[in-house]
Design brief:
- This protein is mostly helical and 71 residues long.
- Helices cover 68% and strands 6% of the residues.
- It contains three helices and two strands; from the N terminus they run αββαα.
- Strands 1-2 form a two-stranded antiparallel sheet.
- Helix 1 packs across helix 2.
- The protein starts with a helix and ends with a helix.
């Protein structure tokens, strides 16, 4: 219930973000990222996936009743 929807959202975010952002133009604290485009795409996908999983998990947790949470 959490990982699969998060995976789909991460894929969609990847497409949307990198349609407008060139990975070679990214900087980290003023320094160029010395990574290949594929590495940046991969790291970004996993970052998007983790954030979407946290969001999905929080939604699932908030959907539980107080009795279910306090078991």
């Amino acid at each position: 219930w959490i990982a699969w929807p998060a995976f789909l959202v991460a894929g969609l975010l990847e497409v949307l973000v990198f349609a407008f952002v060139d990975p070679q133009d990214l900087h980290w604290f003023g320094q160029d990222l010395n990574l290949s485009r594929q590495a940046i795409y991969t790291l970004a996908f996993f970052a998007f996936w983790v954030l979407a999983m946290v969001s999905s998990a929080l939604t699932a947790l908030l959907g539980l009743s107080s009795a279910e949470v306090n078991r």
